[in-house]
Amino acid sequence: MPANTKADTHSRQKSIHEQQDRHDERKKSSGAAAKKKPPPRTSARKQPSAFPAQHLDADGQEADLELRPLFLAPDYFGSQKLQGQVALITGGDSGIGRAVAILFAREGADVAITYLASDDDADETRRCVEAEGRQCLVLQSDVKSAVACKKAVAQTVKTFGRLDVLVNNAAFQKHADSLEDLDDEGLQETWDTNLGGYFRMARAALPHLKEGACIINTGSVVGLRGSAKLLDYAATKGAIHAFTKSLASNLLPRGIRVNAVAPGPVWTPLNPADLPAEKVAEFGQKSDLERAAQPEELSPAYVFLASSVCSGYITGIVLPVTGSVGAI
């Protein structure tokens, strides 16, 4: 080994560190790091990155939000990917469900939506679907009831004569600071809605789904990474991912595909109804894109998974649309 090699290496590395330290100090003193840059723009149109510090009541509607979610996706042009098909979407009155209903209609599908209580929101979804030139059946229904699930499917098939796509999307969310704060009533409501509802709707739809049909489940990024304050909700979403893969294997011989979308933070009534106002103002800023998504940024993923032209060779996946690198 040549003389002084170790000493020379140490000296060189020390010099590199010192040079970087000086650069950091100059940057700090010049104030270059003081001004926060706006989030990077990656979408077709500029999306909001700041949200009002607003808390919704438990029965709050999308129409009550000070900043209305963007769901129309005006830069998305349909190309008959779902022409002549029929889709049933649970929780289709607002948020992701509404945005999906609109793009499904734009792709040529008639749509049935279920909702729990928000009549005005459901009517708005219907108007938007009809503006796309398709029919919309609006059904008030509770996915916790097996009878209600069967009735929703039966009414959809009676109205439109078929069922091609089921989107399980209805959800309940309530944060808890600790496991001790999570009582059995809340635990049961979350599990029975988020997971039980998916099982019941899929079971009710199966007799009507033919070869080439599909089921799409709404999972979540918290089902991939967990959430300290959403213990039960995150657990149901992780279970939904497992349910998706298991049902995909089960239905493969029947030619029915089953996939899931795992959204990151999305601006819908779900979070402002759960979070305190000051937390709502920060919603989504911890994602790599430094903002929450708008519903219209999620809906194309559902079109992709619904269309056999796009995803006929895909089943049993959980597609992350999270605004962050390395979601899975």
How is this structure best described in words?
The chain has 328 residues and is α/β, with parallel strands linked by helices. The two termini are 45 Å apart. It is built from 10 helices and 7 strands. The model has no long low-confidence stretch (mean pLDDT 87). Helix 2 links the parallel strand 1 and strand 2. Helix 2 runs parallel beside helix 3, helix 4 packs parallel to helix 5 and helix 5 packs parallel to helix 7. The radius of gyration is 23 Å and the shape is globular. The protein has a 7-stranded parallel beta sheet, sandwiched between helices.
Q: Which descriptors apply to this entry?
A:
328 residues, 39% helix, seven-stranded parallel β-sheet, globular, alpha/beta
Topology:
Layout: H1 5-29, E1 86-90, H2 95-106, E2 110-115, H3 119-131, E3 136-140, H4 146-160, E4 165-168, H5 184-205, E5 214-218, H6 222-225, H7 231-251, E6 257-263, H8 277-280, H9 299-306, H10 308-311, E7 318-321
Parallel strand pairs: 1-2, 1-4, 2-3, 4-5, 5-6, 6-7
Helix pairs in contact: 2-3, 2-9, 4-5, 5-7
Put the structure in a nutshell.
With 328 residues, the chain is α/β, with parallel strands linked by helices.
Tertiary shape: globular
Tally of extended strands? Answer: 7
Order of helices and strands: HEHEHEHEHEHHEHHHE
Q: How much helix, percentage-wise, in residues?
A: 25-40%
Strand order of the largest sheet: 3-2-1-4-5-6-7
Unreliable runs, pLDDT <50, ≥5 residues?
Answer: none
Give the termini separation: 45 Å
Mean pLDDT, to the nearest integer, reads 87
Number of helices: 10
Radius of gyration using CA atoms only: 23 Å
Largest sheet: 7 strands, parallel
Share in β-strands: 5-15%
Structural class: alpha/beta
